[in-house]
Write a structure and sequence with these properties.
4-stranded mixed beta sheet, alpha/beta, 16 strands, 22% strand, 36% helix, Rossmann fold, 375 residues
Length: 375
Amino acid sequence: MERATTAWTSDLGESSGSKWVPAFAHKLNRSYVVYGALVLLPSAAYDELDRLGFGTGAIHANLQRLYELIAHHLKVTHIAVTRPIPPRDDEHARENVIRAPRNFTPLYGEFGPATCSSPPTQEEFDAAFWVTAKQNGIYQTWAPRWTMFSRGNISEKARLLSLPSVLSAVEDGGADGRGCTAVDMYAGIGYFTFSYLKAGVSKMLCWDLNPWSIEGLMRGAVVNKWQAKLVTGSQTLDAAVVGQARLLVFNEDNMLALGRVEQARNLVPPIRHVNCGLLPTSSDSWEPAVGVIDPGMGGWIHVHENFAVNEIEQKAEEVRVEIQRLVEQRGQRIGCEDHRHPQSVAIEHINRLKSYAPGVMHCVIDIYIPPRTPS
């Protein structure tokens, strides 16, 4: 990047109209990210141009020359600016539940059509620009115009690869040859799904509402050589559908997860882990998460939440209490709870993953649910 910006600065010279260049180039050099053939430039550099009154339209030709130099020196074909995922969909002022990158701005290269059908067609998927990156030995694929990619989750992905509760579930399932299953309530492009698979989980059941994320998940599974099956809404989970696929993928609301699991409970290994990875809160998924955990063996729910830094322990306990309530409610409903020996839901660990905003921490709470005691 420094070679590109140095050459660009030299080309511009000392003209009075280029006083903004050194500070702009410094921001680019300090903060950019390369994913395969794509480089993402820091939004702060462009925000500063706007603040100084330098509209990018007036300096378009100068910036295009910069992008050509960046593409040459970094050996990339595409350049863009991305910003945090907006909480609301600007088009309809509704909640941005599919986490679409509405603030993504292509700068250089062909990213495919800017609009698509709902749901997208296979032709639209194929016309988009796709990126593949490798983290922790795992490939992940996404279309940056349509799907978010969070590099800040890399430490949590790595933690799952060696998490004792994951490894023990894999080991327990291997003892009798059944293996174990995990469920990802907000799978996205496979952020955490792929870590469970690499750790040895036999089968994954994955939910996500964003069809672009699902397409990325399916493409990523191919790159990692994991067989995946996309289950449509009309399909019943029978032996023919479940088959040998390590991933069963559902492009639907995760509130349907419990019904799907009940269809397939005897066709998949015991479900020992559930990942609830939506911010700012994953609370809508807690009830189905409790329901899908294997009743005979128990398991773990990994709850992602945003907490004020000075309230982490208190808020984590509130989550545990709510999970406890849901466990007891579920036990009463299906008649498997012995009230003389109620299940005691426990927090095993609180992982302070990363800062989400000033004074706010993205946390992952590992919650253990013991086996149900028959009445």
